[in-house]
Amino acid sequence: MAETTFTQAVEAIYTDGVLRPLEQLRLAENQRVSLHILPPRVRIPAAVARRKVNVFVCEHLSCSMGGGAPELVTGERVVWRVPVLLTFPHYGTVGTAGVIDVDAETGDLLTTAASIEELIRNAEAIAVRLPSEAESQG
Fold it and tell me: Closest by alpha carbon to 92, among 117, 74, 66?
């Protein structure tokens, strides 16, 4: 029998050693769940931040680029820092062109014209160092 998995974001309050959800959960009695504790200002899951970066780089830069594993960075503004990876069919991932920060509360991509130009320059520098396809075939 195949398992059905789903993700549900729920806010809860921790009191006297017990997490109490702030809304009704549709769970079976004694159902085991996995918790990912995030600061209250994090409303955007890591997977959504990565997906937003994937869509952005494919639509605006190159479909040979995509988001890697996001890292949560806390400070005055909480962001998911998503590495932008350069990939090629015969090589796989060949390098990191840079990062794009995604606001963990709003989901906004925090990019500038200069940061996009830097991603492009870095990707081109990585690509130039690769052997040509003719060289790799022998």
Answer: 66
Q: Where are the beta strands (DSSP E) in the chain?
A: 12-15, 18-21, 65-67, 71-73, 79-88, 92-103, 109-110
pTM, to two decimals: 0.70
Mark 62-87 as b/e (b = at least 16 C-beta within 10 Å).
Answer: bebbbbbebeeeeeeebbbbbbbbbe
Task: Please name every residue paired with 34 in a beta bridge, in sequence order, or none if there are none.
Answer: none
Backbone phi, psi, residue 61, to 5°: -120, -75
**Which tens digits make up the pLDDT trace of 103-127?**
999 999 999 999 999 999 999 999 9
